[in-house]
Specification:
The protein is α/β, with parallel strands linked by helices. The protein has helices at residues 3-8, 23-35, 42-55, 66-80, 96-103, 122-128, 148-157, 209-219, 240-247, 250-271, 299-302, 306-315, 332-338, 346-354, 366-381; strands at 59-63, 86-89, 107-110, 133-137, 161-165, 173-174, 177-178, 185-189, 202-206, 223-225, 228-229, 277-279, 293-297, 355-358. Strands 1-9-8-5-4-2-3 form a seven-stranded mixed β-sheet, sandwiched between helices. Helix 2 runs antiparallel to helix 9 (240-247) and helix 4 packs across helix 8 (209-219). The protein binds pyridoxal-5'-phosphate.
């Protein structure tokens, strides 16, 4: 069966993610296997150059996960400014956002998020920033950019870097500029479900050549050349197979993101009249790259719990999800180790209690989209 036929094959389950594939990728993977050249070679270099052109930034450094991208970015900054160690970030994210801060020998300082956009609240960042702040780490939650300009101004006025967790936002733009070309360092994930994927993988973007150089060293055991180690490093190198999967998607990314946007608009039109649902607010000045279409359920009005709705959707073949059910500070490890408790970041906590996601990936057919909206309405009307 061809790749296209496989992709378009009707499925009993409406999937929330469908990783890209093509005949070209399959041919290239075989040729890499036969070449025996597996790690951080020519294809990864081409992938970096194509990403830099697409994003409009000077340097792209590929690594083997989005977590590694954050780890290596913060570690490079720490090397440059060793006396500072706080990273101001948001608890409304995937654990990797804060875990990577610890991996780099730093400390996350959480501040709450905006109730409507779900992104870090710049006024709270302003209150927390001080002489020990190494970086501000906003997250472009679900593919919608954080409010980067005030964050850059607040950070810049204190000589602090912005390390953007853009793991979910490849292809998004903020006020006309592509995400990845704005912050001091931007870190992307190319995990299998992402809008552009490499199976596992990630990359860092920066216009700062010195930081890019440090990141390249750290990615490869700190070595400037073979067996010539300059700094402490790791093995964060990207596989050629991963780069080959990623590079083939760049020319299609804008179209796939436009499809995601159209699917979100369809869902909003079909579900917008239900008073028990509300949506993450979109800033019209930005180009969104919907990774997850996120809704909030008012359980009282709906007469059903969020988790009840999601399990009913799943029983009826709609792969709905809850991302994230728990903010980072309330994860058992964070509670037990650092003493965080419920009420510390009430906005993030409220959002996590209400959010769920519906499929909007670019390969959904019209009838699948209709099935998602009709099933959701059907459950909520009962
Ligand atoms: C906001 C955010 N940050 C970081 C990561 C980590 O990326 P990876 O899974 O590629 O390590 C993810 C991954 O899903 C994410 O959603």
């Amino acid at each position: 069966m061809s790749v296209k036929a496989e992709r378009d094959r009707p499925s009993a389950i409406v999937r929330i993610a469908k990783p890209y594939n093509s005949e070209k990728i399959e041919r290239q993977v075989i040729s890499i296997l036969r070449s025996g050249k597996f790690v951080q070679g020519e294809i990864a270099r081409d992938f970096e150059a194509e990403l830099a052109r697409y994003i409009g930034c000077k340097n792209v450094v590929t690594v083997n996960s989005g977590t590694a991208a954050l780890h290596v970015a913060i570690t490079a900054l720490k090397l440059a400014k060793g006396n500072r160690s706080d990273v101001i970030t948001t608890p409304l994210s995937f654990a990797a956002t804060a875990n990577s801060v610890f991996h780099s020998g730093c400390k996350p300082v959480f501040v709450d998020v905006d109730e409507e956009t779900f992104n870090i609240d710049p006024s709270l960042v302003k209150e927390k920033i001080n002489g020990n702040t190494l970086a501000v780490e906003p997250v472009d939650v679900y593919g919608l950019p954080a409010d980067l300009e005030p964050l850059r101004n607040i950070a810049g006025s204190k000589g602090v870097a912005v390390v953007e967790d853009a793991a979910e936002a490849i292809g998004a733009s903020y006020h006309g500029k592509k995400v990845g070309s704005i912050s001091t360092l931007s870190c992307f994930s190319t995990y299998a479900t992402k809008n552009l994927h490499t199976g596992e993988g990630g990359f860092v973007t920066t216009d700062d050549d010195l930081l890019a150089e440090k990141i390249r060293l750290i990615r490869n055991q700190g070595q400037a050349s073979k067996y010539n180690q300059m700094v402490m490093g790791y093995n964060f190198r990207m596989l050629e197979i991963c780069a080959a999967i990623g590079i083939d998607q760049i020319p299609h990314l804008d179209e796939m993101n436009a499809k995601r946007r159209a699917n979100v608009l369809y869902m909003k039109e079909k579900l917008g009249s239900l008073d028990c649902l509300s949506f993450q607010r979109v800033d019209d000045a930005n180009g969104d790259a919907w990774y997850m279409f996120t809704l909030m359920l008012d359980e009282k009005r709906a007469g059903i719990s969020r988790d009840g709705l999601v399990s009913k959707l799943r029983e009826r073949g709609i792969e709905a999800d809850v991302s994230w059910p728990t903010p980072i500070h309330l994860q058992p490890y964070y509670r037990e180790t650092f003493g965080y408790k419920k009420g510390d970041f009430p906005v993030a906590e409220r959002i996590c209690e209400k959010v769920f996601q519906l499929p909007i990936q670019p390969y959904l057919t019209e009838s699948e989209l209709e099935r998602v909206s009709n099933t959701t309405k059907d459950i909520l009307h009962k």
